[in-house]
Amino acid sequence: MTAQQPSAPAPAKTRHSHSGVTHVKERLEGNFTVISNELLQHPELSSTARGIGSYIQSLPEGTPVGIKSLAEQLPEGEIRIASALRELERYGFHLRTKERLPSGQVVTRTFAYNRPRRAVVEAARAPEPKAKAPVPPRAPQAPRKAADLLAGLRTYDSRLILGERDVLRLAPAVSQWLERGVPPTAVARVLTTDLPQDPIKYPAAFLAHRLASQLPPHLPAPAPRDTSAAARPDPLQTCEDCDRAFRSARPGRCRDCRARSERAA
Fold this sequence. Notes:
It is built from 11 helices and 6 strands. By secondary structure, the chain is mostly helical. Helix 2 crosses helix 4, helix 6 packs across helix 7 (164-179) and helix 7 (164-179) runs parallel beside helix 9.
């Protein structure tokens, strides 16, 4: 009795099409990653962002995915990787936050989403409101800058996360700093340096105290330029030869008398 030969593996399934791509699919038993088409076929993401986002989805939990770490693993340079990560953050597939450990060390936590966060998607898809009438442009943009500055403090320390109501309440105080010539980076530095080691129970009250207690004075106004001397004409003088009046800074002879004297000489 002869032994039965093992049967050959079933061939891969192929669906033929007259044009376009033809998929040749094999059943995968391991070493694969499930990635949503929302990432792979996103109409706004660049091909670099899609590829890096898919690569991050395939990495094991806890793998470093900072710009320098990815640059060591991928052929793209740090500039292209940073641009791709910003795209992924903009459309809700990526989130980076900074947190302070009990030891005082500040670390960056990264969250990779296989589906975009709903809040980010709704904000990107929301139609812009149509203006009923032309609105004159607003010269100062301090309120908007102040709100963005306050909302971004959580990237320095997760204990400084503010609610929307607290941002609106503290924005006028930040605007005072900006109106007094303090750059936004300097304001953020004042609010985030020398933070207490203990938990900040009320971040809004803590920031309000710093904004009020350390508010810098107005810059001194520049001294007005004295232009009166330059605009004042020379005084009238009496010519020593013909007694005719003429303007000059010093007494002497008029122009005609000086010319006759030069010709005579």
